[in-house]
Amino acid sequence: MPSGCRSRIRTQTRARTGPGFIDDRIALKPDAIATAGIDCSQVKQPVADAKAAGIPVLSWLGADCDADGGEKLWAADIVYHQDAPTTAEWYAAWGVQKVQYLEAKLGGKVRLINVRFNDALPSLNDGVESAIADCGDCEIVADVAVGTADAANPQGPIVAGVKAALLKHPDANALLVPADTQLMATGLLQALRNSPQGKKLIVTGGEGGPSGIEALDQGPVPTAIIGYSNEWIGWALADSINRLLNDSPQVAEGFGTRVVEKGENPADEAYQAKVDFESAYKQAWGITQ
Which secondary structure element, helix H or strand E, spans residue 116, and what is its range? Predict the structure, then answer.
């Protein structure tokens, strides 16, 4: 990859995920636009507008529009990891890792309450279900399916669904949620801690934001988070954009996840990767200072 590239990066610090975010960026006439965790179907028209304006758009862990049968609109296919190169494969591998942790903690006998999205991240749940199927004495005893609109809703179906599952399945010994938000923002974390059965569950959280790490250290649930680094995402997106703008091939960014239990991450900080990715990127870009 050519070295010595100069880039100006404008970050969006407020949580904006709708079409207006892309429209605002188009007006600035940047060299490229990058998003994270946004599916093309959510912003299809603005991405098409950006493409028509000659502005490439990339998304980190966001499905392209061809996943829903539409036209492919992302400007490049980011390669996340050598063992899980695509968005679907990466999410599936994350789901597998969550179940493998539960299996190891419970001696291969998992009775899982599975909180999942019914309108997003199908490959994450595919990974969960495939890992359960590969386990000799594991099963999903309750399926709590929710829409993304209720992902952080204290009045939504998550808490009620998990409470009902615990009553119906006293043999349940594990709980899995897609991300930290489903524990922290819905009231589920406190509901589990207030329940004699709930606080005995082996619970895997999500990505490991500061609030997720704090909850992990407080215990007894969650038992672990399967974390990934948001800082790494920023560096990897910059690398992917630079490769695109310099007509260089995309390469595996090495972006993975890691099991973190209580006390294994700096307190009250977001998940910290054990890999010195910053130095690796600087070396790849020819930056020596």
Answer: strand 109-117
